[in-house]
């Protein structure tokens, strides 16, 4: 039936992955309360009255810190499959992983020298 055999499970997975969010959003729309009172539209901060406006500007260092975190979080995502299959990959894959880690270390040193890791 399929031109590419062996991809039936992938197609099923993609269909399920697209149906789950659609069903969740549909269910939440049907089950949510429909009141439009002024109290319902106020900002909720742990049961306390909100202080100040909700639109404040954050320091750029917060975003830089978040970007550095994302970079090194992605590093673990790429290194985990490599570590699992390390015994089958051989020396060339080990050298490639070392190059990848070296590039990330250079990025960390660059971010450190630029002050992206300073929180104050």
Query: Can you summarize the main beta sheet?
Result: none
What distance separates the N and C termini?
Answer: 61 Å
CATH topology descriptor of the domain at 58-119: Methane Monooxygenase Hydroxylase, Chain G, domain 1
CATH class of the domain at 58-119, please?
A: Mainly Alpha
Fraction of helical residues? 55-70%
Summing up helix and strand content along with how strands pair, one would put the structural category as mainly alpha
Mind telling me which CATH architecture of the domain at 58-119 this is?
A: Up-down Bundle
Taking all residues together, what is the mean pLDDT?
Answer: 81
DSSP E strands, number = 0
Q: Taking Cα atoms only, what radius of gyration do you get, to the nearest Å?
A: 24 Å
The CATH H-level homologous superfamily of the domain at 58-119: NADH:ubiquinone/plastoquinone oxidoreductase, chain 3
| Element string (H = helix, E = strand) | HHHH
Number of helices: 4
Overall 3D form: flat
Low-confidence stretches: none
Strand fraction: under 5%
Subcellular location: Cellular thylakoid membrane; Membrane
Family: Belongs to the complex I subunit 3 family.
Main location: membrane
InterPro entries: NAD(P)H_OxRDtase_bac/plastid, NADH_UbQ/plastoQ_OxRdtase_su3, NDAH_ubi_oxred_su3_sf
């Amino acid at each position: 039936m399929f031109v590419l055999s062996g991809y039936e499970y992938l197609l099923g997975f993609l269909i399920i992955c697209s149906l789950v969010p659609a069903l969740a959003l549909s269910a939440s729309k049907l089950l949510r309360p429909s009141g439009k009172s002024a109290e319902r539209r106020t900002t909720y901060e742990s049961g306390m009255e909100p202080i100040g406006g909700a639109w404040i500007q954050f320091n750029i260092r917060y975003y830089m810190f978040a970007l550095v975190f994302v970079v090194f979080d992605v590093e673990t995502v790429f290194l985990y499959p490599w570590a699992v299959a390390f015994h089958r990959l051989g020396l060339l894959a080990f050298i490639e992983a070392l190059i990848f880690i070296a590039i990330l270390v250079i990025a960390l040193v660059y971010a450190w020298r630029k002050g992206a890791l300073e929180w104050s």
